[in-house]
Amino acid sequence: MQFPVPQFTDVEDKIIAGLTFKQFAIVFGAAVFTFIIYTISKNLPITIGVAVFTGIPALALVFGKLNGRPLYSSAGNFVQYLFGPKVYIYHKEGKDFGSEYTPIIVEEKVAPKDLKQTAVKIKELNYVLQQQQSEQSKLIDMIKQNREQSK
Protein backbone atom coordinates (compact mmCIF):
# COMPACT_ATOMS: atom_id res chain seq x y z
CA MET A 1 0.00 0.00 0.00
CA GLN A 2 1.41 3.38 -0.98
CA PHE A 3 1.35 6.32 1.38
CA PRO A 4 1.67 9.97 0.34
CA VAL A 5 5.05 11.40 1.27
CA PRO A 6 4.99 15.09 2.17
CA GLN A 7 7.10 17.25 -0.13
CA PHE A 8 8.87 20.50 0.68
CA THR A 9 8.77 20.09 4.45
CA ASP A 10 11.33 22.86 4.91
CA VAL A 11 9.04 25.53 3.41
CA GLU A 12 7.22 27.64 5.98
CA ASP A 13 3.44 27.95 5.71
CA LYS A 14 2.02 31.15 4.26
CA ILE A 15 -0.41 32.48 6.84
CA ILE A 16 -1.41 36.08 6.12
CA ALA A 17 -1.37 37.73 2.66
CA GLY A 18 1.21 35.32 1.29
CA LEU A 19 3.62 36.00 4.16
CA THR A 20 4.90 33.60 6.76
CA PHE A 21 4.30 34.36 10.42
CA LYS A 22 7.83 35.73 10.90
CA GLN A 23 7.57 37.96 7.82
CA PHE A 24 4.18 39.26 8.93
CA ALA A 25 5.49 39.92 12.45
CA ILE A 26 8.38 42.00 11.08
CA VAL A 27 6.12 44.11 8.82
CA PHE A 28 3.52 44.43 11.59
CA GLY A 29 6.20 45.54 14.07
CA ALA A 30 7.44 48.26 11.71
CA ALA A 31 3.86 49.44 11.09
CA VAL A 32 3.07 49.53 14.82
CA PHE A 33 6.28 51.48 15.52
CA THR A 34 5.36 54.00 12.79
CA PHE A 35 1.82 54.31 14.18
CA ILE A 36 3.14 54.92 17.70
CA ILE A 37 5.43 57.68 16.38
CA TYR A 38 2.45 59.24 14.54
CA THR A 39 0.23 59.18 17.65
CA ILE A 40 2.98 60.76 19.75
CA SER A 41 4.12 63.45 17.30
CA LYS A 42 0.97 64.15 15.20
CA ASN A 43 3.40 65.41 12.57
CA LEU A 44 3.09 63.87 9.10
CA PRO A 45 6.64 64.61 7.79
CA ILE A 46 8.21 63.03 10.90
CA THR A 47 5.92 60.02 10.55
CA ILE A 48 6.85 59.60 6.88
CA GLY A 49 10.55 59.82 7.76
CA VAL A 50 10.16 57.18 10.48
CA ALA A 51 8.10 55.02 8.10
CA VAL A 52 10.88 55.19 5.50
CA PHE A 53 13.64 54.42 8.02
CA THR A 54 11.74 51.52 9.58
CA GLY A 55 9.85 50.28 6.52
CA ILE A 56 12.79 49.84 4.14
CA PRO A 57 14.85 47.71 6.56
CA ALA A 58 11.71 45.77 7.50
CA LEU A 59 10.91 45.04 3.84
CA ALA A 60 14.55 44.11 3.21
CA LEU A 61 14.42 41.67 6.14
CA VAL A 62 11.13 40.21 4.96
CA PHE A 63 11.82 39.77 1.24
CA GLY A 64 15.63 39.74 1.08
CA LYS A 65 17.61 36.54 0.68
CA LEU A 66 21.22 35.77 1.58
CA ASN A 67 22.71 32.57 0.16
CA GLY A 68 19.23 31.28 -0.64
CA ARG A 69 17.98 31.76 2.93
CA PRO A 70 15.74 34.54 4.27
CA LEU A 71 17.64 37.57 5.51
CA TYR A 72 15.90 37.54 8.89
CA SER A 73 17.42 34.15 9.66
CA SER A 74 20.91 35.72 9.43
CA ALA A 75 19.99 38.95 11.23
CA GLY A 76 20.51 37.45 14.69
CA ASN A 77 23.97 36.22 13.77
CA PHE A 78 24.83 39.63 12.33
CA VAL A 79 23.78 41.44 15.51
CA GLN A 80 25.71 38.95 17.63
CA TYR A 81 28.81 39.54 15.48
CA LEU A 82 28.35 43.31 15.60
CA PHE A 83 28.20 43.56 19.39
CA GLY A 84 30.23 40.50 20.33
CA PRO A 85 33.98 40.27 20.89
CA LYS A 86 36.10 40.28 17.74
CA VAL A 87 39.09 38.45 19.20
CA TYR A 88 38.67 34.72 19.29
CA ILE A 89 40.76 32.97 21.93
CA TYR A 90 41.04 29.23 22.12
CA HIS A 91 40.00 27.93 25.52
CA LYS A 92 40.88 24.35 26.09
CA GLU A 93 37.84 22.60 27.48
CA GLY A 94 37.11 19.03 28.27
CA LYS A 95 39.34 16.05 28.58
CA ASP A 96 42.33 15.74 26.31
CA PHE A 97 42.07 12.25 24.92
CA GLY A 98 45.39 12.16 23.11
CA SER A 99 47.78 12.78 26.00
CA GLU A 100 46.62 10.23 28.53
CA TYR A 101 48.32 7.01 27.62
CA THR A 102 50.50 4.60 29.44
CA PRO A 103 53.62 3.63 27.56
CA ILE A 104 54.14 -0.07 27.20
CA ILE A 105 57.65 -1.02 28.15
CA VAL A 106 58.85 -4.15 26.44
CA GLU A 107 61.96 -5.71 27.84
CA GLU A 108 63.92 -7.47 25.19
CA LYS A 109 65.51 -10.64 26.40
CA VAL A 110 68.61 -11.50 24.46
CA ALA A 111 69.18 -15.21 24.16
CA PRO A 112 72.66 -16.28 25.16
CA LYS A 113 74.66 -17.13 22.07
CA ASP A 114 76.40 -20.42 21.83
CA LEU A 115 79.94 -19.48 20.86
CA LYS A 116 80.73 -22.91 19.45
CA GLN A 117 77.77 -22.80 17.05
CA THR A 118 78.70 -19.28 15.99
CA ALA A 119 82.27 -20.36 15.24
CA VAL A 120 81.01 -23.31 13.19
CA LYS A 121 78.68 -21.04 11.19
CA ILE A 122 81.49 -18.62 10.47
CA LYS A 123 83.70 -21.45 9.21
CA GLU A 124 80.90 -22.75 6.96
CA LEU A 125 80.31 -19.28 5.56
CA ASN A 126 84.03 -18.85 4.91
CA TYR A 127 84.13 -22.17 3.05
CA VAL A 128 81.14 -21.21 0.87
CA LEU A 129 82.70 -17.84 0.02
CA GLN A 130 86.02 -19.46 -0.89
CA GLN A 131 84.25 -21.91 -3.19
CA GLN A 132 82.37 -19.08 -4.93
CA GLN A 133 85.60 -17.16 -5.34
CA SER A 134 87.35 -20.13 -6.89
CA GLU A 135 84.43 -20.70 -9.29
CA GLN A 136 84.48 -17.03 -10.32
CA SER A 137 88.20 -17.13 -10.96
CA LYS A 138 87.75 -20.27 -13.12
CA LEU A 139 85.02 -18.54 -15.16
CA ILE A 140 87.18 -15.47 -15.68
CA ASP A 141 90.07 -17.66 -16.88
CA MET A 142 87.73 -19.45 -19.33
CA ILE A 143 86.49 -16.12 -20.73
CA LYS A 144 90.04 -14.89 -21.21
CA GLN A 145 90.99 -18.10 -23.05
CA ASN A 146 87.95 -17.81 -25.34
CA ARG A 147 88.88 -14.24 -26.24
CA GLU A 148 92.45 -15.19 -27.01
CA GLN A 149 91.33 -18.05 -29.26
CA SER A 150 88.86 -15.86 -31.16
CA LYS A 151 91.56 -13.30 -32.02
Overall shape: it is elongated
The share of residues in helices is 55-70%
Number of helices: 4
Strand-residue proportion: under 5%
Write down how many β-strands occur, each being a DSSP E stretch of 2 or more residues.
2
Low-confidence parts: none
Q: Which class of secondary structure composition applies to the elements? A: mainly alpha
Rounded to the nearest angstrom, the distance between the terminal CA atoms is: 98 Å
Mean of all residue-level pLDDT scores? 85
Order of helices and strands: HHEEHH
Sheet with the most strands: spatial strand order? 1-2
Radius of gyration: 46 Å
- Describe the sheet with the most strands: 2 strands, antiparallel
Explain this structure to me?
- By secondary structure, this protein is mostly helical.
- Among the domains are: 21-83, no CATH class; 117-151.
- Helix content is 60%, strand content 3%.
- It is built from four helices and two strands, in the order ααββαα.
- It has helices at residues 21-41, 44-63, 71-83, 115-150; strands spanning 65-66, 69-70.
- It has a two-stranded antiparallel sheet with strand order 1-2.
- A hairpin with a 2-residue loop joins β1 and β2 (69-70).
- The longest helix has 36 residues, at 115-150.
- The radius of gyration is 46 Å and the shape is elongated.
- The mean pLDDT is 85.
Secondary-structure map:
Blueprint: H1 21-41, H2 44-63, E1 65-66, E2 69-70, H3 71-83, H4 115-150
Antiparallel strand pairs: 1-2
